[in-house]
Amino acid sequence: MAYKTEHITQQLRAAREAQKMSQRELSARSGLTQSHISQIERGTMEPGLGSLVDAARALDLEVILAPKKLMPAIRNILDSTSVSTDVLTSDQRKLVGRLDRWFAQHRGAFASASEADTFKDSLALLRHLPLPAEEMDTFKEATARLDRWQDDPPSRQELSRIAHAVRQIRNAAVHRDRDAVVPRSAYALDEEDDNA
Amino acid sequence: MAYKTEHITQQLRAAREAQKMSQRELSARSGLTQSHISQIERGTMEPGLGSLVDAARALDLEVILAPKKLMPAIRNILDSTSVSTDVLTSDQRKLVGRLDRWFAQHRGAFASASEADTFKDSLALLRHLPLPAEEMDTFKEATARLDRWQDDPPSRQELSRIAHAVRQIRNAAVHRDRDAVVPRSAYALDEEDDNA
DNA sequence: CATAATGATACGGTTTTATATATCAACATT
DNA sequence: AATGTTGATATATAAAACCGTATCATTATG
What nucleotides of chain C have any atom within 7 angstroms of a protein Cβ? Predict the structure, then answer.
């Protein structure tokens, strides 16, 4: 049915999820109904152009028409440029990187696969979400145990505790982020962009 | 009404006109109704996403979502790359240029202002539309009389005849251009009446 | 465990899109 | 002068979109 517009609506969903925004929050920002959004994302219904623009704007996206022949060049810009601003402290970057490498080799150490996935997901987010100094300490502290995994491998229970702690930090960061780090994201308030 | 989507639909119309395509032809290529297209372009109604995509495809355009922050870069691509590729023979370029200069000085020689305008319009198009060799001959032949305007000024009737001939060449070029240069633009035709 | 948040659905009701078809005035073409 | 083409409209009808609201199963969270 909505074969022609599938990629667009799919992109909408991807953008929303990338911003960790719920359908209900997007609903509030865009003026569309949550049920409406769900159906659009699922392909159950095809949005009107107006709805698409509303949803897109709420996600900091623009609906544009581009000549086919220019698409390669545009695509180049679109997926080469990393999306987030990456204003992390080098401390955070290093720590996340270290944990990342650790995880690559020891994911099997977790109690369950889902727990490992949760941990990985937390890491993925903390790679992009800046953490305030104090929380960085908590983060460091929570994962300090992993530094000694070599000569003293942590038990699964210890790992669970650590993963849970990291998860909490992630959650805190995500929630604070919406209003603090990405405050001028969507709204129609800032119509004024820089000039061309 | 359709304030949010005005620029998009406006762009649609601009693209269609730039390709010298009539609403009826776009209708045939896109599957939409001519009346539908008219209303969309006028802003009387807001198209669904499906309709927009259909119309866009028929015009060799793509509907895409782009992050706002990347818009400057994209806009750069969009309007830096100018119009058509201009693959004219040097013969055609020269001839058009000469006629252009001639016209700049002798537009008053035409029978009416509108006839002069028509001639200018034809020239403007032939500056960008490549002409096959045979037609170039016809073109040259039709305007040969102007080469002797100096010592033997052509009558208004002669001018009318020439202008008309040039106009015909222009028309043929436009039609051929649409069917040749934009052959694989729209798939809508293939779906419905798939005649070879 | 209890609670809250999430996404998927459902349904009745209003509004809008979209089609099919035709007409019309303004031009363009032959 | 006769004929085609163009874009704007009109009307009637079918088909969706869109909203409100509400429910439900999962999953996340405290």
Answer: 5-11, 16-22, 28-30
